[in-house]
Specification:
Elements lengths: L2 H14 L12 E7 L4 E10 L2 E10 L2 H14 L4 H15 L24 H26 L1
Antiparallel strand pairs: 1-2, 2-3
Helix pairs in contact: 1-2, 2-4, 3-4
Amino acid sequence: MSLDNLYRRVIMDHYQNPKNRGRIDDGAFTVNMNNPTCGDSISLQMIIEDGRITDVKFLGDGCSISLASASMMTESVKGLTVDQSLELVDLFSRMMQGEDVEVERFPLEDIEALAGVKNFPARIKCATLAWKALGKGIEEHKHGSDR
């Protein structure tokens, strides 16, 4: 099996069997974002306690890349500090822009399957939507905590 086929299978598995799909009932911080270009949307919920993401879930509509990326992202940041999570947001963004990044730094190896998306510029926004929602949510939470 070629590496491309393996990556497609990983993406389809996360799309068809998403991790952390659903709602958090109480105490969650929610961020809603959409990609008007293609119609993808995400509602990301997270609980941040003592500077750490203790729970994160998502609901959304979109293509396989968008929803698989959300599944992978939630799996990789659960339990991390907000600063570690923001580092991953930056790392993922740089990977999507075509930079060589150390994919070993991602806690979930499946994320490497999304590296090929950079070759399809129209799909980059799909892959980064959940990550942008995470970054926005963390920043909003930080500013809300500063008040």
